[in-house]
Design a protein that fits this description.
9 helices; Pyridoxal phosphate homeostasis protein; Ala_racemase_N; TIM Barrel; single chain; pyridoxal phosphate binding; binds pyridoxal-5'-phosphate; PyrdxlP_homeostasis; alpha/beta
Length: 231
């Protein structure tokens, strides 16, 4: 039996330690519990422990769980196909995975139709691995500029995924690059583009992410246990 309360205590303690080491306020870092593939019963347990932010990477699953677990914030963290935007547009608190103008234009259209301003993060492929989604760091500023012209989208920051099996030091260096990119984009002072959120860090690298300036960490297996299916 997975002890979600104990796992959460441990994660929160580690987050607090990392924040203190970095000289940051623990409250400035939001824990997103990644509940993909996990049953609603486990999500309810996390809610009982005070978790209010959940991450899903499949639009359909987010849409279902949104109905079953009300009064929490749902984050879409996985790759989003344009034809799935309609499934989550009225449900997603924050979309972490915007990496193309075409996707942003679909979000704009759907958000406009329900009179919503959709908060998003731009996913950046910092590592340059070809298997990763995300815009390249070089193209990110221009993408932000173009998306900023869409009135129903608000860019709140950047998101990235690190490389599996990277060491703590390698992760920190990689995450630091995202933080630098965010600073660079902030200095461009693009109207309507904010760089207040940096979503980075998963179960195996969230300490490094917090040391490098993450404001949101996305933790799945460290809270809910390993997943059977790899998604
Ligand atoms: C699955 C997933 C996570 C959580 O991964 P864990 O290693 O289980 O913590 C975080 N971010 C994204 C984008 C994911 O797909």
């Amino acid at each position: 039996m997975m002890d979600i309360a104990a796992n959460l205590n441990m994660v929160r303690e580690q987050m607090r330690c990392a924040a203190e080491t970095a000289g940051r306020k623990p409250e400035s870092i939001r824990l997103i519990a990644v509940s993909k593939t996990k049953p609603v019963s486990m999500i309810r347990e996390a809610v009982a422990c005070g978790v209010r932010d959940f991450g899903e990477n499949r639009p359909q699953e987010l849409a279902q769980k949104f109905v079953e677990v009300p009064n929490v914030r749902w984050h879409l963290i996985g790759q989003l196909q344009r034809n799935k935007v309609k499934l989550i547009i009225d449900k997603a608190f924050l979309i972490h995975s915007v990496d193309s103008l075409a996707l942003a234009e679909e979000i704009e259209k759907r958000a406009a139709a329900i009179d919503k301003i959709q908060d998003v993060l731009i996913q950046v492929n910092i590592s340059g691995e070809s298997t990763k989604s995300g815009v390249s760091p070089e193209e990110a500023p221009d993408l932000c500029r173009k998306i900023s012209l869409l009135p129903h989208i608000r860019i709140l920051g950047l998101m990235t995924i690190s490389v599996k099996d990277f060491s703590e030091d390698e992760n920190r260096a990689l995450f630091a690059k995202l933080q630098e990119l965010a600073k660079k984009i902030e200095q461009m002072e693009i109207p309507g583009v904010f760089m207040q959120e940096i979503s980075m860090g998963m179960t195996h690298d969230y300490t490094a992410a917090i040391l490098a300036g993450a404001t949101m960490v996305r933790i799945g297996s460290g809270i809910f246990g390993e997943r059977n299916t790899k998604i």
